[in-house]
Design a protein that fits this description.
The chain is α+β, with helices and mostly antiparallel strands. Helix content is about 30%, strand content about 25%. The protein is built from 24 helices and 54 strands. The strands form 13 sheets. It has an eight-stranded mixed beta sheet, with helices on both faces. A seven-stranded antiparallel beta sheet has the order 36-35-39-38-37-40-41, with helices on both faces. Strand 20 and strand 21 form a beta hairpin. Belongs to the oxoprolinase family.
Length: about 1200
């Protein structure tokens, strides 16, 4: 809603300061005159000159008149120029120079697919036009492995210049710590006429080739464009103190404003503004809520800015420190709809044009429409700028019409339109609550203790109290500038310079080195701020060390100090974040960070002239919490300091509306802020859990249960020790009901989907007398296990005064080693289960709250081939127990907030909802059969037979049990069926036991899908699962075969063990090419970053590239596999469990097959034969080369 307050003519001679936030819909401009009087303008952002138009408006001069230089003292601005250029791919023409062997690394990235159930995943196109490799290599310690080829580098630079590249990004392996090659390449590029040169160590000097490389590319892509914009503005404001908001929460001088640090400048201003507003009232712990038309930004603060190491924006990973802001697609313009039996809100938005239905321009039903129908907005308070001609007020009738249409689709009676509107708002609030929890509760903060919610943005006040109730927060603060608080925060922000550099030393012996590195960062940071005008006495410098446990990449920042003080701060933060402290004698200083800042502004002393009251109704019919009443309408202009309000009521500011529900009271503070407190805890209206489910409650409970599983996963990842769980994300977490039926499974690894239910039921059957404080450990294939390294922890949840568990929490993680004949517990030539490691069949890992460490160690050591690293197993098990404890705590909270009967009822309802989604799929399925062969001669045959209300998946014709390890326990077949059905449905349906209720699975006894209890199964989980997915998708006619394998590579010796799965080509489909170099189907684990791999293992990664030409030909081609070359620096044993080395991935409808994979060990250039299929013994200097399969093509070329 545009709102303009013109400056008083009496201030015409004074120099003004302007604070500007250029948003997607409106540009907010705050002007402060020489007397401290504050004025506000809102200008539509579609005007390219919106910022200066707002300045002119506040100065009271003509729209195109020159700006009087003497009247503008300073401008502080947040801009979306960089963000929009990234979203629209309108940056500069860019080239990339990278170390030889890694020209495709920013295409492959971490090898994961962005959407787990998308059969045809597509990654964002790279920002660079051309990537060229340059010979020359340094190792992890900076030693020269290969001299930089300067002649080749010059030729590459000339190619980039000839291709029209305006800028070049330079990314060298280990360049963050050893930048010599990057610096030489930069000199060569400049000598060839390339002036805009960006070196990765200068952009972000931290370890991680992929993240640092992508950040450098983003910086090089955006900075030239951003600087052209900045300098053009500077020319129009000569002599003006011009500064820009950075994503890290600080200002930068015009010439220091770079693309990678400008992406979240608007949201960062909002966080700074929220902290400043809260500080005026003694509030240190807060959650900020910035709700606009399209999305909502939330953040957590405890008196100071909280930062993340980076974020993903428009598909690009940007690894620079930025404020920890979580964005959710739930704004006032979020579209309300109905699909699969559930009310959905967002992520689509109506935008500013056509806007919500009430704008009168044919827009859809949105959250704003629902608030209007509920009386949470006063139509008369909006200007007449709507309708086709922009001359009408809001149209509530249009909102009701669209609401009635939704009611018919969702099955609401015509008399229940307001109930439907309230339900839609409830869903939106639940989406926001989930976003808030991600930045607060998941970080170990208890929001019920002394927190306030600071709400702002155009729609923040409409939902603030309801969201606070959902989060257990008892206070809400709304500043009089709530509608433009991001602009205020930009004006108050301090000049800030952050510098970070990787170190990677042992903390105990590295304090002196850390002090030296910090000093080296501090000097240029201070110099830069002093040059920008910050006085020495105003400078503040914070020195921090980013600590982590050995083997982990999750760091915690602590203040640099004594060794004991840093250890204490790390331990306390770890306990708060993850609920436990790992006993670790060593801590690693991963990086150091210096933050230099100037003085920040304050809201104190600023005065906004009181606006004249408007002729508005004194009361409005408002509905809150299922109850309607005639609520008072207060105009902030009439509320003096000390005035009190009681809900239900509306409080109208010029740029925002606040809805105060029943049970809340408020008081106006001296600065005009509205301080709201919850006077009474409102219980949700009693609901009957049985009977027909409410579509909105169905969506809310789906979100609640999924959030619990996701929070469990967050705890597990951050508390685990092993690379497999922490880095590769080879784990899953899930929630089960009292029967052991799956309720919610966070979509981590597809092969775990649905397979843990059998494990929970096995634990229930084996332990009829469960007690609180018990937990069981399972990996036995006969008890729902998949393969032995996948250890599952099952924890029952008892409610007070109950003797039987109501729910179960479950976490499954791939442990690096669990014993067996080879490191990694996946011997390629195993013939018996015992050869693959230690078997745990409902082992009591916790009894009465006591961890059975001694018994567990005994079991690991007593095996014929003992586990190689029991300490790591224990550390990962403790992390799994912590994850389950987190799930139990959140499930208890849900029972308290929603009611036990309601929780249990909706567990049943969401299972029924998932079942119905599968039933709706059946008419679209045709009967089909597909046989897929394995390299060893076996085969999987799948037949789809859809019937009336049932789907039969018949695997008759599948080969008999394999004499080796190519056998899959029944849980793997169920997981593959679960995954394929979810892909075929194509809608976002709940992942729970209901998906399989209408499905019958038949597997032949004695086949490789139902092997005997002693059969080896290591390859079944990883390889047969892929063949199952290939056979089922082929039978459904959905897609050509993807690479058909996980390429399970493990190597190690007595000192270390390492395991990874390697991506390949995806299969093509009708009109859809397969993706290159991506994990497909039953796995989606990440691959370790090249620099991290070389730091942790005695290897050199010589090449990681796309295997061009390996995808099957066709009308739509199959995706290409990859080439991965590893040179070993010490002797190791190698195991490769893989398929599609003899049998090529099939094409469909005339499409060609993908190329087969290949594994070769080379010694001085000659092949070394394997000791057994898939097993080698390598010497130092040997090279192992993996070429992964391509995907099949679709249709005749």
């Amino acid at each position: 809603m545009p709102s303009t307050i013109r400056a008083a003519r009496s201030a015409a001679g004074a120099a003004w300061r302007f604070w500007i936030d250029r948003g997607g819909t409106f540009t907010d401009v705050i002007g402060v005159d020489g007397a401290g009087r504050l004025r506000v303008a809102k200008v539509p952002s579609h005007d390219p000159d919106a910022a200066l138009r707002g300045v002119r408006e506040l100065l009271g001069i003509a729209p195109r008149a020159p700006l009087p230089r003497a009247r503008v003292a300073a401008v502080r601005m947040g801009t979306t120029v960089a963000t929009n250029a990234l979203l629209e791919r309108k940056g500069c023409r860019l080239g990339l120079l990278v170390t030889k062997g890694f020209g495709d690394i920013l295409r492959i990235r971490d090898q994961s697919r962005p959407e787990l159930f998308d059969l045809f995943p597509q990654r964002p196109a790279p920002l660079y036009r051309l990537a060229l490799e340059v010979p020359g290599r340094l190792d992890v310690r900076g030693r020269t492995l290969e001299e930089l080829d300067e002649r080749a580098a010059a030729a590459a630079a000339r190619r980039l210049a000839a291709a029209g590249c305006e800028a070049v990004a330079i990314v060298g392996m280990h360049g963050h710590a050893h930048p010599a090659h990057e610096k030489r390449l930069a000199r060569i590029c400049r000598a060839q006429g390339l002036r805009e040169v960006f070196m990765s160590h200068a952009v972000e000097a931290t370890q991680g080739l992929v993240a640092r490389g992508e950040t450098t590319v983003v910086d090089a892509y955006l900075t030239p464009l951003l600087q052209r914009h900045v300098q053009a503005l500077a020319r129009r404001l000569p002599g003006v103190d011009l500064r820009f908001m950075q994503s890290n929460g600080g200002l930068a001088a015009a010439r220091g404003f770079t693309g990678s640090r400008a992406i979240l400048s608007g949201p960062a201003g909002g966080v700074v503004g929220a902290i400043a507003a809260a500080r005026r009232h003694g509030v240190k712990k807060l959650v900020s809520l910035d709700m606009g038309g399209t999305s909502t930004d939330v953040a957590h603060c405890r008196g100071e800015l909280e930062r993340a190491a980076g974020a993903t924006v428009a598909g690009m990973a940007v690894a620079t420190p930025m404020l920890k802001v979580n964005t959710v697609a739930a704004g006032g313009g979020s579209i309300c709809g109905y699909a699969n039996g559930r009310i959905r809100v967002g992520p689509e938005s109506a935008g500013a044009d056509p806007g919500p239905a009430c704008y009168g321009r044919g827009g859809p039903l949105t959250v704003t429409d629902c608030n209007l129908v509920l009386g949470r907005l006063e139509p008369a308070s909006f200007p007449a700028v709507f309708g086709p001609a922009g001359d009408r007020g809001l149209d509530p009738a249009a909102s009701r019409k669209k609401l009635a249409e939704l009611a018919r689709r969702a099955g609401y009676p015509a008399a229940k339109l307001e109930q439907l509107a309230e339900d839609c708002v409830d869903v939106a609030v639940e989406n926001m609550a989930k976003a808030v929890k991600a930045v607060s509760v998941q970080q170990g903060h208890d929001l019920a203790k002394d927190y306030a919610l600071v709400a702002f943005g155009g729609a923040g006040g409409q939902h603030a109290c309801q969201l606070a109730e959902r989060l257990g927060i008892g206070r809400v603060l709304l500043h009089p500038l709530a509608g433009v608080l991001s602009a205020a925060g930009i004006g108050l922000a301090a000049l800030r310079e952050l510098r970070r550099r990787s170190v990677g030393c042992d903390l105990a012996g590295g304090v002196r080195l850390l002090r030296t590195r910090l000093a080296a960062l501090e000097a240029p940071a201070v110099k830069k701020l002093r040059a920008a005008g910050v006085k020495a006495k105003e400078l503040r410098v914070a020195r921090r060390v980013l600590l982590r446990y050995p083997g982990s990449s999750a760091t915690i920042a602590v203040s640099f100090g004594t060794l004991a003080a840093m250890r204490r701060e790390f331990a306390a933060a770890h306990r708060r974040l993850y609920g436990l402290e790992r006993p670790a004698p060593r801590l690693i200083a991963a990086a150091v960070e210096v933050e230099a800042s100037g003085p920040a502004g304050s809201l104190a002393g600023l005065r906004r002239p009181r606006a004249a009251p408007r002729p508005l109704p004194a009361r409005i019919r408002m509905r809150c919490g299922g109850q309607a009443s005639k609520a008072p309408v207060h105009q902030a202009a009439t509320l003096k300091s000390g005035a009190r309000v009681t809900g239900p009521c509306l409080v109208l500011e010029e740029t925002s509306t606040t809805c105060v529900p029943p049970g809340w009271k408020g008081e106006v503070a001296a600065d005009g802020s509205l301080l709201l407190r919850r006077a009474a805890v409102r219980r949700p209206p009693a609901r009957r859990g049985a009977g027909k489910p409410n579509p909105a409650r169905l969506e809310m409970f789906h979100s609640i249960f999924m959030s619990i599983a996701e929070q469990m996963g967050h705890v597990l990842r951050n508390t685990a020790y092993s690379v497999n769980i922490k880095e590769r994300l080879d784990f899953s977490c899930a929630v089960f009901d009292a029967r052991g039926d799956l309720i919610a499974n966070a979509p981590h690894i597809p092969v775990h989907l649905g397979s843990m239910g059998a494990t929970v039921k096995a634990a229930i059957a084996a332990n009829p007398r469960m007690r609180p404080g018990d937990a069981w450990l399972v990996n036995a294939p006969a008890a729902g296990g998949t393969h032995l390294p996948d250890l599952t922890v099952v924890t029952p949840l008892f409610l007070p005064r109950e003797r039987r568990p109501r729910f179960f929490l479950c976490s499954r993680g791939h442990h690096t080693d669990i014993g067996g004949r080879s490191p990694g517990s996946m011997p390629a030539d195993a013939t018996r289960l015992a050869e693959e490691g230690v078997v745990f069949d409902c082992f009591p890992i916790v009894r009465g709250g006591r961890f059975a460490e001694a018994a567990f160690r005994t079991a690991l050591a007593a095996h014929q081939w003992p586990a190689r690293d029991p300490d790591q197993n224990i550390a990962d098990l403790l992390a799994q127990l912590a994850a389950n404890a987190k799930g139990a705590a959140e499930l208890r909270r849900a029972c308290t907030e929603q009611g036990l009967a309601e929780v249990i009822a909706y567990m049943g309802h969401i299972k029924a909802n998932a079942k119905q989604a599968v039933l709706d799929l059946l008419p679209r399925l045709r009967a089909g059969v597909r046989t897929v062969a394995a390299d060893g001669g076996g085969q999987v045959r799948a037949a789809l037979r859809p019937g009336r209300g049932r789907l039969l998946l018949d695997f008759a014709g599948t080969s008999a049990q394999d004499p080796g390890n190519l056998n899959a326990p029944p849980a793997v077949t169920e997981a593959a069926a679960h995954y394929v059905l979810r892909c075929l449905v194509t809608e976002d349906i709940p992942l729970n036991a209901g998906c399989m209720e209408a499905v019958t699975i038949k597997t032949p006894a004695g086949s490789l899908l139902r092997p005997g209890p002693a059969a080896a199964v290591a390859a079944g989980n990883v390889e047969i699962s892929q063949l199952l997915a290939s056979a089922l998708l082929g039978a459904a006619g959905a897609a050509a075969e993807s690479q058909g394998t996980m390429n399970n590579l493990s190597f190690g010796n007595a000192r270390f063990q390492y395991y990874e799965t390697i991506c390949g080509g995806a299969g093509a489909g009708p009109g859809k090419p397969g993706a290159d170099a991506v994990h497909t189907h039953m796995t989606n684990t990440l691959i370790t970053d090249p620099e991290v791999l070389e730091e942790r293992c005695p290897v050199i990664l010589e090449e990681f590239a796309i295997r061009r030409g390996s995808g099957g030909k066709g009308a739509a081609r199959g995706g290409c596999g990859v080439i991965r070359r590893l040179r070993f620096l010490e002797p190791v044993e190698i195991s490769m469990l893989a398929n599609k080395r003899r049998v090529a991935p099939y094409g469909m409808r005339g499409g060609g097959p993908g190329r087969r994979g290949q594994d070769v060990l080379l010694r001085t250039g000659r092949r070394v034969p394997p000791l057994a299929p898939g097993r080698w013994r390598a010497e130092a200097g040997d090279v192992f080369e993996v070429r992964t399969p391509g995907g099949g093509g679709w249709g005749k070329a």
